[in-house]
Amino acid sequence: MKKIITFMSTLVVILLMLPGCSSSYPTSPSTNAPSATQPTTPSTSTKSPTGAQSISIKGFAFSPTELTINKGDTITWTNEDSTVHNVVGGVLHSNDLTKGQSFSYTFTETGTIDYICTHHPSMKGRILVK
Questions:
Q1: Please, which residues have CB within 8 angstroms of residue 14's CB and are 6 or more apart in sequence?
Q2: In whole angstroms, what is the distance from residue 116 CA to residue 114 CA?
Q3: Staple partner for 90: which of 31, 52, 106, 123, CB 3.0–4.6 Å?
Q4: What is 20-51 written as a DSSP string?
Q5: Tens digit of pLDDT for each residue in 63-97?
Q6: CATH class of the region 29-129
Q7: What digits encode the pLDDT tens for the residues 7-38?
Q8: How many CB atoms lie within 10 A of CB 127?
Q9: pLDDT for position 30
């Protein structure tokens, strides 16, 4: 009985790790990151009209995939998928986000930040801070 419980526990751990596996996992996203303080169909670059911007995480994609903002603007990423995602690259290091959770970051320096979801490395985005 003890061997069956050990086997089942090991199997559960392995199955939980499978969604994050990928053969093309990058070691780190490319970045020209500034230091800062803290889709179904992806859209193209968008220029920030105000200081608060949002990016949806939906359909295993960031939307918009590229966003141009001003120094001092804040971006909020919100996970609309039923699976866990995160936002990682340069100065961006979110926790894992479940459906409905958000991550916000205020950019205090200019530069370009490329980021990915480390669970699904084909999900890529870029922030251009002017």
A1: none
A2: 7
A3: 31
A4: G--TT--SS--EEPPP-----S----EE-SSS
A5: 999 999 999 999 999 999 999 999 999 999 999 99
A6: mainly beta
A7: 545 444 444 444 544 433 333 444 444 433 33
A8: 27
A9: 41
